[in-house]
Amino acid sequence: MRSLRMNLLLMVMVALFLGGCGSDNDPGTTNPPARIPVVQQVTDNDEFEGNPMYSPDGNWILFEAEMNGNYDIYRMAVSGGTPERLTTDPGFDSVPCWSPDGQSIAWESDRSGNKDIWTLDLVTPGAEPVRLTLLDSQDASPAWSPDGTRIVFESNRDKTGSDLYVLPAGGGDLLRVTNTPNNVYNRTAFWSPDSAQLVYESNVTGFSTLQIVDATGGTGTSITPDPGYEGHPSWSPDGTQIAFESTRDGTSEIYTVAVTGGDLFQVTTSGGWWPSWSPDGTEIVYCVFAFGEPNIWTVAVDW
C-alpha cells in the first residue's frame, strides 16, 4: 500500500498557514483546526477499478477492474500484493459483493446477452458461476443480506424505470420490494446489519435521494431530502450511519448521515465514489478518480 504522506504534509502546511492568517484586529479569536482525513491509497494501477468492498473477515478487498482488456472481478489482500482475478468471461462483469460467510461472491454480468445476477463459490475447486436471474431484463447491483439468505438487486423487468427485488440466495421466487411509476429508478440497494431494511438511491422525489424501506416491501422514507445527487449507500456495521457519495458541492465526495436523517458529515475532501465500510467500522474503502482512472483508497473513521 502507498500512503499519501506528501499530500497529507501539504494539507497540514496549508492548514497551518490558514490557521495563522487570523485578523490582527482580533488576536483573541481562533478558528478550530480543519479536519484532515487520514487516507491511504491501496492501488495505483492505470486501469479502471471500482465498487470496492471489504471481505467479512476484513482480509480482502473485492472490486471490479478493467485489466487484461476486459472487465472482471478481482480480490486483493488488504495488506497489498497482486490482485487475484476471479472471473474470466469476455462479458462485462461488475458490481461484486461478498456472501456474509466470505465463501461466495455475487455480481452483475452481461455474459448471457443482458445483465443478470451471477454467483460463484470461491471455496469449492473448479466451481462454475451460477446464473440466478433468467429473464430478458437488466438485473444489476446485487447485495447479499447479512443473514445470508437473500440477494437484493435492481431490475427494469416490469417497466421503463427500475425497482428493487429480493431473491433467495440459492434461487427461487422473487419478492418485489419497491413499486414506483415509470421513469423512476430505485437502485444500488444495501442491507441493514439485521437484514430487515434496505437503503437505496431513488429519484422518486424528482432528484436523487437516499431512501430506506423494509426489506419485505413498502414505501421508502427519504433520509437526504436536499436537492443534489446521492448514491451508492453503505450501511455502517453498528447500524447507525449511512455512507454515500454526493456531488452536492460540485465534486463527488463521501459523506455520512444518521439512519434517521439529519445533518451530513463530509468524510473525504479530495474526491470519492463507491464507499463501503470495513467489518469493524474503523475504515471506509472507496475510489478516487486520479490521473484519469479511479483507484482504491481507504479513509479512517475518526469522527
Helices and strands, with pairings:
Layout: E1 2-3, H1 5-19, E2 39-41, E3 49-54, E4 60-67, E5 70-77, E6 84-85, E7 93-98, E8 104-109, E9 116-121, E10 130-131, E11 139-144, E12 150-155, E13 163-168, E14 175-176, E15 186-191, E16 197-202, E17 209-214, E18 221-222, E19 230-235, E20 241-246, E21 253-258, E22 265-266, E23 273-277, E24 283-290, E25 293-300
Antiparallel strand pairs: 1-2, 2-25, 3-4, 4-5, 5-6, 7-8, 8-9, 9-10, 11-12, 12-13, 13-14, 15-16, 16-17, 17-18, 19-20, 20-21, 21-22, 23-24, 24-25
> What is the average per-residue confidence, as pLDDT, rounded to a whole number?
88
What kind of sheet is the major sheet? 5 strands, antiparallel
Q: Strand order, biggest sheet?
A: 1-2-25-24-23
In angstroms, what separates the terminal alpha carbons?
Answer: 23 Å
The oligomerization state is single chain
Secondary-structure element string? EHEEEEEEEEEEEEEEEEEEEEEEEE
Strand content: 35-45%
Helix and strand composition category:
mainly beta
Total helical elements: 1
Low-pLDDT sequence parts: 1-29
What radius of gyration results from the CA coordinates?
Answer: 20 Å
Helix content: under 10%
What is the number of strand segments? Answer: 25
Shape: globular
